[in-house]
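Sharing a chain and its predicted structure for anyone who wants a worked example. Both blocks are below, sequence first, tokens second.
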Amino acid sequence: MANDRLRDALERSRVSPAELALLTECDVKTVSRWLAGRVPHPRTRFKIAKRLKEDEDYLWPGARRAVAEASDSAGMVHFYPRRGAVPPNLWDRLLDGAIAEVGILVYVGMFLTEKPDLLDRLREKAESGARIRILLGDRESSAVKQRSVDEGIGRETISAKIDQANAFFASLSDVPSIEVRSHSTVLYNSIYRFDNDMIVNPHVYGKTAPMAPAMHLRKTSTYGLFDTYSDSFEAVWGSTKPDESRR
């Protein structure tokens, strides 16, 4: 359906499609599509509304609400351009709030081991009834070796870090509700689950994990992103076996 409100606003403001294209750094064909009913990107909508001195919701009724509803239904709470941008207090808040389930899927997760009270907090969670599952990389797996090469840090670097992570978590081996396993899968995403909240860190070729994006997800009433990554975690967990040497 044609956007007559946008067309009328252009005429009232005496702004031509060519001028609008210049303003938004788009071509005139794109402006024609907007006039025909296509909805511009949110930042572009804001720029157009400001230039035409019109309310964005008047020019594109329901557009902002539709984006919000789509985000809610998918379970996306917040997107971070880098994992390093996730606020430290968010990790603490999610861990503190977890009652039933904590799941960690990484190769190393070294930044977690820098929390001085992490082991005590995990032990307390487990003793209160929470299930704690930690998946670390198999230091000898080809996937781990390749990831280390891909990050440009040397073939054995991640394997050495895995040794450190295993040593760090070793003191939890006597806690029945905590299980640490090794996996040899390609780590497309690091996953950190805290009951119905989750931080997912998709990996990028040539970049270390802190420099790759992170998503804060929340479980929704219908199947969403949280469930997609939860299924992935379970698939990796199901591909491993308990390591009796940890007991």
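Comments welcome. The longest strand covers residues 131-137.
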